[in-house]
Amino acid sequence: MKLLRCGPLGAEKPAILDRDGIARDLSGIVDDITPSVISNTEVLEQLGTLDLSKLTPVANNERIGPPLSKVGKIIGVGLNYSDHAAESNLPVPKEPILFMKATTAICGPYDDVELPPGSAEVDWEVELGFVIGRRAKAVSLNDAMDHVFGYLIVNDVSERCWQARREGQWMKGKSHDTFAPLGPWLVTRDEISDSQNLGMTLDVSGVRRQNGSTRTMIFGVAHLVHYVSQFMTLEVGDIITTGTPPGVGLGLKPPAYLKDGDVMRLAIEGLGHQQQIALAK
User: Within this chain, do residues 206 and 268 fall inside the same structural domain, yes or no?
Assistant: First the structure.
């Protein structure tokens, strides 16, 4: 299944994508796409047996919001691609580097991204994100994938100066409003045969900046569930975003960052695409 949410900010309605790529309204079946819905086996079975052709299509001009509401926490993984670590002139991590990203940063996949006042180094990062579908605490590597509900695209927008030179942890540079575009879809795990073999791209104003694959991830999805769950309980609806391939602005020579009016377009195989305009506030 490909689940999504459509409508104005704060008033999104649940929807599901049919085989023809048409979004169909789920309002009469579920109230929203929430942690309680994605953890409810009966509801998921019902959604899986629906005749989608009988559901009302969502208007083509309807805004697409983030595909999951009531996200508990966003956990980021830093330097999780060997080629990205190299372009950052940093060693390959021996263990996953973890940071938190505020949920107030969440926005829709086509919403504008704010360039905050005082920022000068706002960067792009196309990332594979996954959503926890079953509570995970100290889970084994063998059982880890049982706790993954599905996948989505995350643009882990980052203000590099705030991240690296404003003291403390990376969270400052990762958490401004609109720094976490999600979606367009939340794709259930069964639709992605190999999450460690997905092509991913990001263009900035028509220039290809990132062209990578999840094959070069250092720590894969299963390992991350296992590893993170040793340090904290992962609840249904939590998102882990798994790092980015090379081609970020920080790694360019000389470095280049988002300017007012730049357009980012992101895509990951099987997960759709995003597009945002960077706008100075």
Answer: yes
